[in-house]
C-alpha cells in the first residue's frame, strides 16, 4: 500500500482527495493544523470510508514539526501539498501572510523531501498563474502573466520552486472548484467569509445574505458577465489520484489544467443554481471587481490524454451539492 502525506488534507479539496485516495487503495496521512478548517472533515472522511484515517497535527511551515512527521512516518511514496491560504481578497490586504505561509510551507516540504529521499509531489496550483490569457481555452503552455493578486503570485513562485528542485512534480492548475461530496459529510469548513461565487449564491439561498452583487455586466462576453470554468470538487479530487499514479510511473516535471473546458458566465451560474435547486436568488448588478479577469476556461486535452482523467459531473449536480452542503453545515 502506497503511503501518501497529504498536507492540508482536512481542508476543502484535501478532504475530498483523501476519500478518493483511500477508495483507490492508497494510505494517506493527513498533515493539517486545522488553522482554517475543522475536525468535522476528518470525522466526515471516517464516516464515508467507515474506517480511521491518520491525522498529524502539524504546521507545514514549521521545519521541526515536519521533521518529526517525516521521521516517524517512515517510507513515504509521495506528497500532495494542499496546505496554503486561499483567499484572494485577504492576500491583497495582507500579502506577507501569503508569502510566509504559502511559499514557506512548500520550502519546508521540499527540504524534508530531500532529506528523507521522497521524490514525488503533487502541488495545488491555480489557473490564476495565467492571469488573463491571450488564447482561450487556455492550455498549459500559455505564459504566466503578471499575477492579479499576491495569492496568484505565490502559486507562480511555488511552481518555479518545483521546477528548480530535483523532485518529480505535478502542478495541478485548478479552475473554479465548487460543490461538495454527495454525502454532505465533508466540505468547505473554512472560517473565512466566503468571497467565491457559488458559496455566496448558497448564502443567499439560505438567507444569510439578501442578494448577491454581480461584479459587472459590461464585459465583452455574450451576457456581459465574467466567464469561468466551474469544476466539481469530487472530479477535482479524483485528478490527484490520477496525477499520483502518473508521477510514480513517469517522474519528471509536469503541469496540468484541471477544469471542465466549459466556460460559464456568472449569470448562467446563478440560473443553474436556481434551476436545479428550484429556488430564486436575488441579485443586483454592481461595478466590476478589481483584479477580475474577463474570461478563462481550460483546454483539458493534456490532462485527458496524460492522466486519463475527465470530469464526470455536470454543473447542475455541483450546484445541487453546494446547496446541500450549505443546508447541512
Ligand atoms: N462574482 C460575483 N459576485 C460575487 C462573487 C463573485 O459576481 O459576489 C463573480 C466574479 O466577479 C467572477 C466569478 O464570479 O467573475 C467567479 O468569482 P470567484 O471569486 O468565485 O472566482 P475567481 O474570480 O477567483 O475565478
Properties at a glance:
329 residues; alpha/beta; seven-stranded parallel β-sheet; two-stranded parallel ribbon; binds uridine-5'-diphosphate
Please summarize what this structure is:
The radius of gyration is 19 Å and the shape is globular. It is an alpha/beta fold and 329 residues long.
Notes on the structure:
- The protein has eleven helices and 13 strands.
- It is α/β, with parallel strands linked by helices and about 325 residues long.
- Helix 1 (about 10-25) runs parallel beside helix 2 (about 40-50), helix 1 crosses helix 8 and helix 5 (about 95-115) runs parallel beside helix 6 (about 150-165).
- The radius of gyration is 19 Å and the shape is globular.
- The two termini are about 35 Å apart.
- The model has no long low-confidence stretch (mean pLDDT about 95).
- The structure holds uridine-5'-diphosphate.
- Biggest sheet statistics: 7 strands, parallel
Share of residues in helices: 40-55%
Number of strands: 13
Compute the separation of the termini in Å: 33 Å
Cα shape: globular
In percent terms, what proportion of residues is strand?
15-25%
Mean pLDDT: 97
Biggest sheet strand line-up: 3-2-1-4-5-6-11
Amino acid at each position: 500500500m502506497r503511503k501518501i502525506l497529504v498536507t492540508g488534507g482536512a481542508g476543502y479539496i484535501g478532504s475530498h482527495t483523501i476519500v478518493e485516495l483511500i477508495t483507490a487503495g492508497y494510505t494517506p496521512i493527513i498533515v493539517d493544523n486545522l488553522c482554517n478548517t475543522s475536525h468535522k472533515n476528518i470525522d466526515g472522511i471516517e464516516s464515508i470510508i467507515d474506517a480511521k484515517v491518520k491525522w498529524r497535527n502539524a504546521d507545514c511551515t514549521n521545519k521541526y514539526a515536519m521533521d518529526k512527521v517525516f521521521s516517524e512516518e517512515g517510507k513515504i511514496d509521495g506528497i500532495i501539498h494542499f496546505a496554503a491560504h486561499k483567499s484572494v481578497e485577504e492576500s491583497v490586504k495582507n500579502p506577507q501572510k501569503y508569502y510566509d505561509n504559502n511559499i514557506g510551507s512548500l520550502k519546508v516540504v521540499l527540504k524534508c523531501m530531500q532529506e528523507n529521499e521522497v521524490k514525488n509531489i503533487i502541488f495545488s496550483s491555480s489557473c490564476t498563474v495565467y492571469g488573463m490569457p491571450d488564447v482561450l481555452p487556455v492550455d498549459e503552455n500559455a505564459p504566466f502573466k503578471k499575477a492579479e493578486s499576491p495569492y496568484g503570485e505565490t502559486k507562480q513562485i511555488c511552481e518555479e520552486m518545483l521546477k528548480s528542485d530535483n523532485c518529480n512534480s505535478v502542478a495541478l492548475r485548478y479552475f473554479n472548484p465548487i460543490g461538495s461530496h454527495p454525502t454532505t459529510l465533508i466540505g468547505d469548513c473554512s472560517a473565512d467569509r466566503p468571497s467565491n461565487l457559488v458559496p455566496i449564491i448558497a448564502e443567499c439561498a439560505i438567507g444569510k445574505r439578501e442578494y448577491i452583487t454581480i461584479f459587472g455586466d459590461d464585459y465583452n462576453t455574450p451576457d456581459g458577465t465574467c466567464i469561468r470554468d466551474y469544476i466539481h470538487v469530487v472530479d477535482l479530487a479524483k485528478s490527484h489520484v490520477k496525477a499520483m499514479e502518473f508521477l510514480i510511473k513517469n517522474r519528471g516535471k509536469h503541469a496540468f489544467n484541471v477544469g471542465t473546458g466549459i466556460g460559464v458566465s456568472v449569470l448562467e451560474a446563478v440560473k443553474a443554481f436556481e434551476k436545479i435547486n428550484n429556488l430564486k436568488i436575488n441579485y443586483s448588478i454592481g461595478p466590476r471587481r478589481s483584479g477580475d479577469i474577463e474570461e478563462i476556461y481550460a483546454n483539458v486535452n493534456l490532462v485527458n490524454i496524460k492522466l486519463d482523467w475527465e470530469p464526470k459531473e455536470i454543473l447542475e449536480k455541483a450546484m445541487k451539492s453546494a446547496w446541500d452542503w450549505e443546508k447541512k453545515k
